[in-house]
Amino acid sequence: AAVRESGASSKKDFGKTMKLLTERLAGQAEPRRISGLLAKLLV
Known about the structure:
mainly alpha
């Protein structure tokens, strides 16, 4: 949902989407795990 919400369509949008996700998941997930999953989604 966050990927769609941020308008991300490629790895170029990684930073923008990562910022959104880290703010949303603060205290719930480690940024490294978020980053790994996001990299798989943005191909």
